[in-house]
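[recover] target loaded
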């Protein structure tokens, strides 16, 4: 991604980088791979007027916030996302879910005013069953959930 030092990358530059990473891995990656989920969330946010400040390189397993964006109202949005594992799916999915929720806790500690989002692929029973079990956390530390479907739609909860 190239841009002038000190300036923010444009949506098209950020989205292009995210899509390139997803395409590089897509030859073997399922729709529910984290990079493909991220591509759909970035597209959804941009379509809805968000400015994408950062999208992690999921192919290289870049640490940190998966997406940082600014909403049309000026508030900052921080996204933690996971795909769905292909092997040992139920056990690994529980670990990935826990890691994503822990990320939200850490993000909240960094900035209690940031809007937090958990992004997951839709249609997986493990994730669908775990989310209601942390409803108490959503009340104490509000966050939204983006469910990304196989057709690329994003449903907001």
């Amino acid at each position: 991604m190239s841009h002038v030092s000190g300036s923010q990358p444009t949506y098209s530059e950020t989205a292009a980088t995210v899509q390139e990473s997803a395409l590089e891995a897509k030859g073997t990656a399922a729709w529910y791979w984290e990079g493909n989920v991220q591509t759909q969330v970035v597209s959804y946010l941009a379509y809805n007027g968000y400015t994408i400040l950062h999208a992690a390189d999921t192919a290289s397993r870049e640490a940190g916030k998966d997406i940082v964006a600014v909403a049309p109202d000026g508030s900052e949005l921080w996204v933690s996302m996971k795909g769905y594992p292909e092997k040992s799916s139920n056990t690994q999915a529980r670990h990935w879910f826990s890691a994503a929720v822990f990320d939200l806790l850490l993000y909240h500690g960094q900035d209690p005013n940031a809007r937090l989002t958990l992004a997951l692929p839709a249609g997986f029973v493990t994730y669908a069953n775990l989310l209601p079990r942390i409803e108490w956390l959503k009340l104490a530390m509000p966050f939204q959930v983006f469910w990304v479907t196989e057709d690329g739609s994003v449903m907001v909860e």
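[recover] notes: The longest strand covers residues 115-121.
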